[in-house]
């Protein structure tokens, strides 16, 4: 599907959208909630254009030149979009940070990028900015979107409120209009558009340099694979500082003329889905896992008849999704009315499809949603590939794979043992009979980053002399679709020298109502084990029904009745595994892994080394007698 306007840079994308909709003053671009109790407030392209021009005038007047870096520490919100588009308009570079970062890491990124201005959202983020301001020599001012509760946070000539900035920019724009126009015309596809700092588990983060060409090529390729139109509406809640949401949920939606509604927060997504009634939601697998487990829990707590109806509806849904028609079509309508329509209502009732990325989607959960008539398009990529390398297409979803290679992109499989490329596929050729052995996934194409900011060594380690980017992921081609196995660095080598990839094994447990999170351990050990974060709500219900008394979470998870639940779950799921893959022991963890406490990345992937260090006493206890 072609984009609604032609463009070769992100600057042209904004300008051509502005021109296209300048006569349609009611065309919605974005929507936000003024407060939790109020309905969504829509913002037209006409208003967006005015705000972007206003902010760009302020930036130009206060010394932001083409190529200068300007940083932002904010949740997803309308001001984030205005900030980004204003920078693209004048050829500056967006340096966006995760709101969960501590002040020390914020300081490092600002120092490394040599950012000149720093935009922040709430008082919490303003406090971080003030703490590190004096240590960032290139930084000359902080601009806060929200007025903080603590007035002293605004003290100092270098702190301003966004409303003040916009008021000044509005007065400046008429006299700077020509300069801004000249700046916008000077932006080239090869120019740097953004620095996205990767959230590694060790060492300092690295700034991936993505040009206008990198991102634009990815937007256009994605549009050839996925049908998005002006009638679509996307609910945005994944961090915009991550390349997945930036390209897929921000630029690609704008390029289609679709509406972008901002969720109040990650915690309010369920509520905001029913209010915004989106047609597209871009998410990580965690959302689908939670929805699935909530539905499963509701069914298990229902009557025997309700459970049988649900099981029947699932079978019918799977048959229908697999292409069966005739009598199955009639049954599917009944299944929808009895079961699946209720699930669709929870998503707002208008979903055309979900897009899943950032981590592997467990096939069982994907099959459940497909059977319900809620399509999930799974994709794959890295920050360094802008980010999409492969994706499934609507109507041709292959659960357990991330689909086919994007147009213009080449993906290869390199054998781990001898570094030989054993398979290669370009986005212009889709041989459905292509099957390959397993190896590291490589990528080459216009979407591959220029390199890491001020880090030539890391760039050379990532991109080889043939311009292939080494992803660090292991996978294979199966019937022309790419299948991800795991990360190379996640591979566990047991005491017998066998290689075990934990990702697919951990996925088996994500459909258990008793398990919220699970991480395998067993490097150089004689058997595999796991750290398990229980579903504490399910456990509390169990304790209440069984009249188990406890004074703390630690006391609850230590009870023999609770331990027996997890012994049973581990035993049942491990039946499908090879002998060396089976989980033989486990320990329950009393706290959930979260972004805030450091065990998860902002896209909700487990930081294995952090978890291993934090719970080393539990791991030691498991293997205490393992020679």
UniProtKB/TrEMBL annotation:
Domain AMP-dependent synthetase/ligase, chain residue ranges per copy: 24-453
Any one Gene Ontology molecular-function term assigned to this protein's record: ATP binding
Domain of life where this protein originates: Bacteria
Gene3D superfamilies: N-terminal domain of ligase-like
Keyword entries, A-Z: ATP-binding, Nucleotide-binding
Protein's UniProt keywords contain Nucleus: no
An example Gene Ontology CC term for this record: membrane
PANTHER family: AMP-BINDING DOMAIN-CONTAINING PROTEIN-RELATED, LONG-CHAIN-FATTY-ACID--COA LIGASE
Name the record gives this protein: Long-chain acyl-CoA synthetase
Species in which this protein is naturally found: Fodinibius roseus
């Amino acid at each position: 599907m072609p984009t609604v306007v032609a463009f070769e840079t992100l600057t042209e994308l904004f300008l051509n959208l502005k021109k296209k909709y300048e006569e349609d003053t009611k065309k919605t671009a974005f929507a936000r909630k003024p407060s939790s109790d109020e309905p969504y407030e829509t913002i037209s392209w006409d208003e967006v254009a005015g705000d972007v021009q206003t902010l760009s005038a302020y930036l130009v007047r206060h010394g932001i030149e083409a190529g200068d870096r300007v940083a932002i520490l904010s949740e997803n919100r309308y001001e984030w979009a205005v900030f980004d588009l204003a920078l693209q308009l004048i050829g500056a570079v967006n340096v966006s940070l995760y709101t969960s970062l501590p002040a020390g890491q914020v300081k490092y990124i600002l120092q490394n990028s040599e950012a000149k201005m720093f935009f922040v959202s709430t008082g919490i983020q303003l406090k971080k900015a003030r703490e590190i301001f004096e240590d960032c020599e290139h930084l000359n001012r902080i601009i806060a979107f929200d007025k903080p509760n603590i007035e002293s946070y605004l003290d100092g000539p270098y702190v301003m409120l966004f409303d003040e900035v916009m008021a000044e920019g509005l007065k400046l724009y008429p006299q700077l209009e020509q300069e801004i126009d000249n700046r916008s015309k000077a932006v080239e596809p090869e120019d740097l558009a953004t620095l996205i700092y990767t959230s590694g588990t060790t060492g300092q983060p690295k700034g991936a340099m993505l040009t206008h060409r990198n991102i634009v090529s990815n937007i256009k390729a994605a549009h050839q694979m996925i049908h998005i139109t002006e009638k679509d509406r996307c609910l945005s809640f994944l961090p915009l500082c991550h390349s997945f949401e930036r390209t897929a949920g921000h630029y690609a939606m704008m390029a289609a003329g679709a509406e972008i509604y901002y969720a109040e927060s990650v915690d309010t997504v369920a509520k905001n889905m029913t209010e915004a009634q989106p047609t597209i939601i871009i998410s990580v697998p965690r959302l689908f896992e939670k929805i699935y487990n909530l539905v499963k829990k509701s069914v298990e707590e229902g009557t025997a008849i309700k459970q049988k109806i649900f099981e029947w509806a699932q079978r019918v849904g799977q048959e229908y999704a697999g292409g069966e028609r005739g009598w199955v079509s009639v049954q599917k309508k009944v299944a929808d009315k009895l079961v699946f329509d209720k699930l669709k209502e929870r998503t707002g009732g208008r979903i055309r499809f979900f897009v899943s990325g950032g981590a592997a989607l467990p096939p069982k959960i994907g099959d459940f949603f497909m059977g319900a008539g809620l399509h999930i398009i799974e994709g794959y990529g890295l920050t360094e590939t802008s980010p999409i390398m492969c994706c499934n297409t609507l109507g041709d979803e292959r659960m357990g794979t991330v689909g086919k290679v994007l147009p213009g992109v080449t993906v290869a499989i390199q054998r781990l043992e001898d570094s030989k490329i054993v398979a290669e596929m370009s986005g212009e050729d889709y041989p459905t009979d292509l099957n390959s052995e397993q190896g590291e996934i490589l990528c080459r194409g216009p979407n591959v980053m220029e390199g890491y900011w001020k880090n030539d060594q890391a760039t050379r380690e990532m991109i080889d002399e043939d311009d292939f980017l080494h992803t660090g992921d292991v996978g294979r081609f199966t019937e022309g679709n790419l299948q991800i196995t795991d990360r190379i660095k996640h591979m566990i080598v047991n005491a017998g020298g066998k290689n075990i990839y934990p990702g697919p094994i951990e996925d088996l447990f994500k459909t258990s109502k008793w398990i919220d999170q699970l991480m395998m351990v067993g490097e150089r050990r004689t058997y595999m084990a796991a750290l398990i974060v229980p579903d504490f709500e399910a456990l509390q219900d169990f304790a209440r029904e069984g009249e188990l008394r406890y004074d703390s979470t630690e006391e609850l998870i230590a009870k023999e009745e609770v331990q027996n639940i997890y012994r049973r779950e581990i035993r049942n799921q491990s039946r499908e595994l090879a002998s060396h893959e089976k989980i033989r022991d486990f320990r329950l963890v009393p706290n959930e892994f979260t972004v805030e406490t450091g065990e998860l990345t902002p896209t909700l992937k487990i930081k294995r080394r952090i978890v291993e260090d934090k719970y080393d006493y539990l791991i030691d206890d498991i293997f205490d007698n393992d020679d």
